[in-house]
Please model this.
Amino acid sequence: MPILEGQGVNKYFGGLAAVSNVDFHVDQGEILGLIGPNGAGKTTLFNLISAALPISSGEIRFKGQKLNGLKPHQICQMGVSRTFQETKVFANMPVFQNVLVGAFFGSPNRVSGADAAREASQALEFVGLSAMSATPIKDLTLVDQKRVEVARALATKPELLLLDELMAGLNPAEVSEAMELVTRIRDTGITIFMVEHVMKAIMGICERIMVLHHGEKIAEGTCNEVSCDKRVIDVYLGEETHAGS
Amino acid sequence: MDITRFISTHRKLLLVGFLVLILIFIITLPLYAGKSDVRVLTTVLMYVVLAVSWAMFSGTTGYMSLAPAAFFGLGIYTMALLQKELPFFLIIPIGGLVSFAFALLVGLVTLRLKGIYFAIFTFGLVVFMTEIIQFLETRLWQRHGWQIIPIDNEILLYTIFGLVVVTVLATYFIRRSRYGLALLSIGGNEEAAEHMGINTTRTKVLIFAISSAFMGAAGVITAPGLIYVNANIAFSLFYSFMPILMAVFGGMGQLYGPIVGAVIFGYLEKTLRAQLYSYFMLGFGIILVAVILFLPNGIAGLVPTLQDKLGGVIQKLRKGGQAGQHADT
Model:
């Protein structure tokens, strides 16, 4: 059963169609990967789902409820949380307070101070950053800042988590850790929709993959199906092979 | 040798003692000080209200408001228009409410603006207020300025001190609350705050209005001391820039930063202006540039640094002493 559905989703920047007539669905409990070359419209699609950008035409539904016209804070409170490609942490706060913001405001109901603090420390423990609670976030490495973003998103108690290039800029060991983290998040019952360039990660953990190119969806299916698709090899994987050879 | 330990263990007690001393100082000042000293202290306390309430909005959200003069002036004019109709103590909350409502309106329209655009708009707002009031006075009311019936200096001092207490307490509780956390997160990264479930527009507009209410109330209390006001006096941009200068100088990371800045600058402004006319502004400019260059976190930012350094020196001395003892035995 799809938890998130998009029908005929369009986004124009002036005359440019950044996302063009895309239909997609994310099934409950799966890890869906979104790939495509630079400028394919992946982050734009995420921005449309989380309402960072208004949709030009088409419709996105979360658990059957229309998201069009809602504000980002409303979408977060409905149960869709996200991280950012360029980390957007609260630079003026320690790590714990960063996560606390998510715990306090991510729920549609009023959360008590004690509950919020508990949720925040649980989320930090989940990503393995409990020891850093009191550290100013500016002092953390990029990898750890990304993990704080994940913890912050988890503290909002999402049902669907959008991960925007969580693994960009990570070394192989860190990629393995991040893959393990994503799988653990899914195992707690949270559905995951992730944009990623690191093919090893995508192939390793995603059940399904969707490919965007010039704003259009050109393929969708299991890892094997997609990696054998001729158009995908042409526009995306093909480039990689050439670059490698 | 145990002074540092004493300070750290009895921190709360010392703070309460210090506050009680300030309270006694302000309450008893009229008994032994001259009229002019009472007035200086009243002005200083007015600046404390302005600086603290400015930092309440701009210090947390990072939106640079140049509009304190607009809301302060609105308070002064509320007093001018209502002084014969209502008792003084009733006009104070009314002045606050008028500024609150006006800020709510302005905020709803302008808080979509970011960075420099918001600053420019708020600057324009003060100029606009001056012009519109002048227009109303000359064309509609056929007058230039208003006499304000003086009120006893001591009463003004105690009233503004009461407002200082209310403003500081409000800031203290906001900083500790979830609302304060939401404000800080907007200052940290507004887009992320919005995506973490915070209604940023509502949060920003509300704090803008709350901080303006304190400025308006300060305007009402300041008006009687001015005796005569017109649009240029009430909406002087000086009232916009001074609180900013004070808050930046004192440091906005701590609650006491803007207070310290306001006390120092308020006192200097009041005393130097009489002797140096407007040249004192030159000195203020130099100090501000120096602070921004060398103390980006203001005076309050200096405290932890000094604590670290002093602590280090003391530890070294202790260790040196112990080493000396060992050498002796």
